[in-house]
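Design a sequence for this backbone.
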């Protein structure tokens, strides 16, 4: 996948790919990320990229001209990171991971001229119901989530067990030592009985999701995504909570 990021602060994006999984994804060719400074497209001699909004109001708005010129020949799926956008979910992440080219616009201040959105933007996306000082952090969240879904970046087995992938939260994780300050690892995880461990973890997933995100359970039941075994556990654990 090729990702193009239009931003006033390219270094904020570039620094993220200097280590860890993001760096490996670039080095192994699973992902290409190109950052471009919006100011470089400005026809103003001072590289001006923003101005005061019409109709009064505080803050500044990114100009239409630099972004129009930056996007005029863009062939990617164009996304504006905005608190007004569609919520970024795992389902949306998986949809975006199917794109060959993705262009992200990181706006600042009071956003960007609506004519850019009306003319060029395919979708506005929000990473949550809160406000950031700029779109770079939101863009990195989106890139990281999408990157993990690209073939070869993360072990497929690990992806299938993560929270939100199957409509359930992930089970608790433990590592060595078996006992630490009087706190022990659940015995079943030390049993070596793989089927029992899988059953235990699935029950923990359902229990956690019922307690912490009942909205996910309701949505999963409504959409019919759960196998019968999960539905049986939901019924069982719901009755335990009531009693």
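Sequence:
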């Amino acid at each position: 996948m090729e990702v193009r990021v239009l931003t006033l602060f390219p270094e904020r994006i570039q620094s993220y790919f200097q280590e860890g999984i993001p760096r490996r994804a670039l080095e192994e060719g699973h992902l290409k990320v190109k950052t471009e400074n919006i100011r470089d497209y400005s026809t103003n001699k001072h590289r001006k990229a923003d101005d005061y909004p019409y109709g009064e109001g505080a803050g500044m708005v990114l100009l239409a001209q630099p972004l129009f010129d930056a996007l005029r020949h863009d062939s990617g799926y164009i996304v504006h990171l905005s608190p007004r956008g569609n919520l970024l979910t795992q389902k949306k992440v998986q949809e975006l991971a199917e794109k060959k080219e993705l262009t992200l616009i990181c706006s600042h201040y009071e956003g960007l001229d609506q004519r850019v959105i009306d003319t060029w933007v395919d979708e506005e996306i929000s990473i949550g119901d809160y406000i950031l000082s700029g779109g770079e952090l939101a863009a990195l969240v989106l890139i990281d989530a999408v990157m993990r879904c690209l073939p070869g970046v993360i072990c497929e087995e690990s992806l299938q067990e993560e929270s939100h992938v199957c409509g359930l939260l992930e089970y608790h994780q433990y590592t060595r030592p078996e006992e630490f300050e009087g706190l022990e690892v659940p015995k079943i995880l030390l049993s070596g009985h793989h089927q029992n461990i899988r059953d235990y973890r699935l029950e923990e997933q359902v229990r956690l999701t019922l307690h912490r995100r009942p909205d996910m359970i309701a949505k999963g039941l409504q959409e019919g995504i759960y196998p019968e075994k999960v539905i049986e556990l939901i019924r069982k654990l719901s009755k335990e909570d009531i009693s």
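The chain has a mean pLDDT of 94.
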